Amino acid sequence: MSNILHTPDPAALRLGTMLPEPFVVVERNEETADTFTLTLCPAGEGAARSFEPGQFNMLYAFGTGESAISISGSPEKTEGLVHTIRRVGTVTSALDRLVLGDVVGVRGPFGSPWPMNEARGRDLVFVSGGIGLAPLRPAILHALAHREDYGRIVILAGARSAPDVIYHEQLHSWMEESGVEVKLTVDQAGSGWHHHVGVVTTLIPRARFDSSNAIAMVCGPEIMMRFTAMELARAGLSDDQIFVTLERNMKCAVGICGHCQFGPGFICRDGPVFRFDRIRHWFSQREI
Amino acid sequence: MTTTLEPLLRQHPLFADMDDDTIHRITGCAKNVRFRSGDVVARQGEAADQFFLIREGRIALEMPAPQGGAARLQTADAGDVVGWSWLVPPYHWHFDLRAVSEVRAFSIDGRCLREKCESDPRFGYQMMKQFSTLVADRLEATRLQLLDLYGSPGPGTHP
């Protein structure tokens, strides 16, 4: 197996990375019944933060705890950190109770980014499942902002049902972009739904891209990513053309505590974005 | 009619690996059909005397939902094949099929094709191989769909 480890960044081990900085909620949008988007700006004189698509922050709901949340806004706009969050546990439920003007602690950004430089001059295939579209959105926005750097852009988005589709309006606006193909599918639908119905993997053979010169970026539940990688392989992509982002409970976010160990590496430090050939072996191990 | 359909049928992904003779035989059972958006293409329980190779547009598989109305279970687009009930007794549709948009398709007469399969086992085996692959792909996709991939994670799995 290829080595999945990155060289640890000594700077990441400095105490400063462990101290949350206060950020204020300046905007809040409801995406679905259990998913919401917060835009955060530094409180007081704090500096805005730049990030690379695919990275995450640790958001601290004071008095409750921290959770690793992908950054889901545009990397071109640094005036606010955008996070789309699904209410699934105690921390995310506490974040869900935040209203405009409330303060949240932020550490980050952490982790490896999507391969936007490596993907230059190539077709981009984004495959998302559910809230998996959130970590992909910065990469999509970056590609759209630098349209001349990339070939065709294919966005294949799956969701449970129509009310569970996040960024609904934005997906439809991307459908109007030249050279951008957006296909939307849900697992459950009524007769009013006019997009696709079925699992997101079934969209891959229907999409148009040059498999010999494409990079695929995939985010969703792990079983969905495993079947997506299989379908991308059937479409002609090799494992080194496929990138996935992994999720685990994280605590320190700098590769010290071991909560997010994945095989010989740590998702917080060596990921969350991995090239598929480097983790394929571990990806298929149920115990990991 | 069939002489003009053959080159068009050849372009359909279902026939990508088929030899000329096989495609010629299938063409003898094929015709062009069109549906308007909202048309019922087939109805559950009716005789499944045909299947469809979609050239343009989208067809949805539907079932009556317990809450009323129709549950849309899957959709099929250009390049897809819709229906294998023509191959399996008692040859009845198990779902409703509805055109979601304007649809252009080839309709293949299932009875005609079954007779050719019976009279030439080699041809019949080729058809069975082709359709068993389709059925296996559809079954795998349906199993994934049943997993409720994007449902709420279990308690305690996320902070």
Structural description of this entry:
The complex is a heterodimer of chains A (288) and B (159). With 288 residues, chain A is of the alpha/beta class. Chain A has 2 domains: 10-110, Translation factors (Elongation Factor Tu (Ef-tu), domain 3, Beta Barrel), CATH 2.40.30.10; 123-283, Rossmann fold. Chain A has helices at residues 90-96, 133-145, 168-175, 222-234, 267-270, 276-283, and strands at 21-32, 35-42, 56-61, 65-70, 81-86, 103-110, 123-129, 153-161, 180-190, 196-197, 214-219, 242-245, 261-262, 265-266, 273-275. In chain A, β7 (123-129), α2 and β8 form a beta-alpha-beta unit. The longest helix of chain A has 13 residues, at 133-145. Chain A is globular. With 159 residues, chain B is α+β, with helices and mostly antiparallel strands. Chain B has a domain at 2-16 and 28-110: Jelly Rolls. Chain B contains 4 helices and 8 strands; from the N terminus they run ααββββββββαα. Chain B has helices at residues 2-10, 20-27, 110-119, 121-146, and strands at 30-35, 40-42, 50-56, 59-64, 70-76, 81-82, 96-99, 103-109. A 4-stranded antiparallel sheet of chain B has the order 1-8-3-6. A 4-stranded antiparallel sheet of chain B has the order 2-7-4-5, with no helix packed on it. In chain B, α3 packs across α4 (121-146). The radius of gyration of chain B is 18 Å and the shape is globular. The mean pLDDT of chain B is 89. At the A-B interface, β4, α1, β8, β9 and β10 of A face β4, β5 and α4 of B. β9 (180-190) of chain A pairs antiparallel with β5 (70-76) of chain B.
The class by helix and strand makeup of chain A works out as alpha/beta
Rg of chain A, nearest Å = 18 Å
User: Using DSSP, what is the number of strands of chain B?
Assistant: 8
- Judging by the overall fold, what is the CATH architecture of one domain in chain B? Sandwich
Shape of chain A: globular
CATH class of one domain in chain B: Mainly Beta
* Helical percentage of chain A: 10-25%
Q: What is the CA–CA distance across the termini of chain A?
A: 16 Å
Number of β-strand runs of chain A: 15
Principal-axis shape of chain B: globular
Q: Judging by the overall fold, what is the CATH architecture of the largest domain in chain A?
A: 3-Layer(aba) Sandwich
Mean pLDDT value of chain A: 91
**Contiguous helical run count of chain B:** 4
Assembly state of the chains shown: heterodimer
